[in-house]
Structure formats: structure tokens, C-alpha cells
Design a protein that fits this description.
By secondary structure, this protein is an alpha/beta fold. It is built from 13 helices and 10 strands. The longest helix is centred in the C-terminal third of the chain and has 21 residues.
Length: 343
């Protein structure tokens, strides 16, 4: 049974598993000095239409925390949405790996920060008694399943750059956002003002593979040392790099994300057609937040589905997530279970 709890619960896609198997033949240089890791930098540069620096790591938390540690001094501030993953779900890892940088959460509808609110929040520069503004971090897609339009990203980047702040994007579901907007990777990142991207693969078909992508190489000076200190310079890095290389080749990542997004649209349409059930946020990627009456929760649980109702906070509506391998019949079975007689 498909549980729809998260896109983390799914298996790795065949192309990624094949790449791991092929990388498991013979010896290879360690600590990223292998052929797969060397090719990966070129592949990512090709995808983003810009020469970049790429640092593979094994988890999204490490990707975000190390990126922010590289961009933020120990006495710095990171401005983020109040529901952002770095603020609610990463167990103080950004603060820990940065040596004490302060997260400054900002409210905003639909999981997004407004430029005016960001501008008002940025203060304290030069005041020795205050943490110093250093970085802005946004998620794409957002924690509400919504997407920043390219113009919205550029507007936030403009505010950040005007104050001398760097700009980071948490792209745990980057491919879902890319497909949702129908734009190029370059348009959604460095051309809009993003300096560093945490590029996610694990939620979209990889086994355990993320990458920190620097569009401004001069910002990456400390990253080799931060990654080593954090334990994410893996001795057998080829198994991470091989996943990412396969993931970004032949549009595997986009195909996977498109399937997840299409299934989210199908699921949301089915849910919205049920009396008493309503969508909490617009469906723009592969997460669906929905207001469910008690009878609906009971019916789903009776049918064997788990209902995740505390993803954002205890008052948040239940969340359902589709993935790269979600199929139409699984969606239809879920809707049928919710629509069964007996309300």
C-alpha cells in the first residue's frame, strides 16, 4: 500500500540503482578523487549552464547546514521562513555547524517570504551588540508545497544583495519546483540571484545523495574543511556521485518529478471533489495539505492509511505526498477508500 506519508519512504529509481551497481566494480580513488565525482562537476555545470563547484553529501540536513555554515559567520543571522525546514526540522544543525549563527524566522502566507517583510527584518548591521545579517535562505518548493515564482526569487535576492547578504536555496524538492514552474535550472537559481543551492536527490529517486552547488565559487573557500569536519567527505564518495550523475542524466530527475507532480494533481482533484474535504494550500508541486473532517481521518485509518497531521506544527492540516513511483491506481484506491459509504 502506498502510504503518501512522505517522498522519503519510497525506493530508489532503477537508473540510480544501476549506477550504484556499476560503480561497485573494481577499485576507485577515495574522498571524491574518483571518476564519478570528477564527472559530476561537469554534469552539474552543464545542467545549470554555468561553471559551478559541487560538493556531494549524504543528507539534506548536511547539505543545508554546511551551506549555511559556509555563508554565515558564527556571529551572523540567517533569515528564513518560520516554517522552513532549517527552522523546524533540522535539530539546530544550521546553528551547530555554523558555530552559533542565529536563525531569524519570518512569517509569510503560503510558506513564502515577502520582500517587504524581509527588508524590515534585516537590521543590526554594524551594531556590535547584535548578530550580524549574513544570509537569506528560502526553500523551493516551500514547506506548504507552494512555489516561489522566478520573479519572487529575484525580488528577494535583490533585497538580500542590497544589504550585502548571500542567498541560499534549500532545494530538497528542487526538481518538483522546476517542473512545476516549467523553467530552466539556471532561471530558477543563479540568474534569479541564488548564490548557493542545496540540490536534493533523495526525495526524488536517489538512495542517499544530495549536493551543495556554488554558483559563486569564491563563497566555497571553507567548504572542503567544513564538509570534512562534519563527516560528509565520504571515503567511497563514488557511490554518492554515481547516484547524482545518473539522476541528472537523460532527464531522469525531471521525469521523476513530473510523475510526482502529476500524481499530486490527480490526488488533489479527487480530494477536492469529496464533500467536507478542502485543500489548505494551492497544489503546485508534490505535497498536498488538506482539511479533513474527523470522519475522513477515521475512514482512512480504517482502510490502513496513516494520516500525517503534524508536519508543519500541531495545528497544521494533514499532509499527503506523492513520489516518483506513485501510480494512478494507487491514487484512485486512496480516493475510493475516502469516498466509501458510511460517513
Amino acid at each position: 500500500m502506498t502510504r503518501f506519508l512522505s517522498d522519503n519512504v519510497t525506493s530508489a529509481c532503477p537508473e540510480v540503482m544501476k549506477a550504484i551497481f556499476e560503480a561497485n566494480s573494481g577499485d576507485a580513488n577515495s574522498y571524491g578523487d574518483d571518476d564519478w565525482s570528477q564527472r559530476l562537476g561537469g554534469r552539474v555545470s552543464e545542467v545549470f549552464e554555468k561553471e559551478v563547484l559541487v560538493f556531494p553529501v549524504a543528507s539534506g540536513t548536511a547539505s543545508n547546514a554546511l551551506a549555511l555554515a559556509c555563508l554565515t559567520p558564527t556571529y551572523g543571522k540567517v533569515f528564513c521562513h518560520q516554517l522552513s525546514h532549517i527552522n523546524t526540522d533540522e535539530c539546530n544543525a544550521p546553528e551547530f555547524f555554523s558555530g552559533g549563527a542565529k536563525l531569524v524566522p519570518i512569517e509569510g502566507a503560503l510558506g513564502k517570504i515577502r520582500p517587504d517583510d524581509l527588508a524590515q527584518a534585516i537590521r543590526g548591521a554594524g551594531n556590535v551588540h547584535a548578530a550580524q545579517p549574513a544570509c537569506v535562505s528560502i526553500a523551493q518548493s516551500c514547506e506548504a508545497g507552494t512555489l516561489y515564482q522566478v520573479g519572487e526569487i529575484a525580488a528577494l535576492a535583490e533585497v538580500a544583495k542590497a544589504q550585502g547578504l548571500s542567498f541560499h536555496m534549500d532545494g530538497a524538492r528542487f526538481a518538483n519546483g522546476l517542473v512545476g514552474l516549467g523553467v530552466s535550472p539556471a532561471e530558477m537559481t543563479w540568474r534569479a540571484g541564488v548564490d548557493v543551492l542545496s540540490l536534493g536527490g533523495t526525495k526524488n529517486g536517489c538512495l542517499a545523495a544530495e549536493a551543495i552547488v556554488f554558483f559563486r565559487p569564491e563563497l566555497a573557500e571553507a567548504m572542503p574543511f567544513l564538509r570534512k569536519r562534519a563527516g560528509h567527505l565520504l571515503s567511497k564518495m563514488r557511490f554518492i556521485s554515481a547516484q547524482l550523475e545518473a539522476y541528472l542524466s537523460d532527464d531522469v530527475w525531471l521525469r521523476n518529478a513530473r510523475q510526482a507532480n502529476d500524481m499530486a494533481a490527480r490526488l488533489s482533484q479527487g480530494l477536492a471533489a469529496i464533500e467536507g474535504v478542502s485543500l489548505a494550500y494551492p497544489i503546485q508541486a508534490n505535497e498536498i495539505f488538506v482539511e479533513l473532517p474527523d470522519w475522513a481521518v477515521s475512514r482512512l485509518e480504517k482502510a490502513g492509511y496513516e494520516v500525517n497531521d503534524q508536519e508543519l506544527d500541531e495545528q497544521a492540516p494533514p499532509r499527503f505526498v506523492t513520489a516518483w513511483n506513485t501510480q494512478e491506481d494507487q491514487i484512485d484506491s486512496f480516493i475510493a477508500a475516502l469516498s466509501a459509504d458510511g460517513a
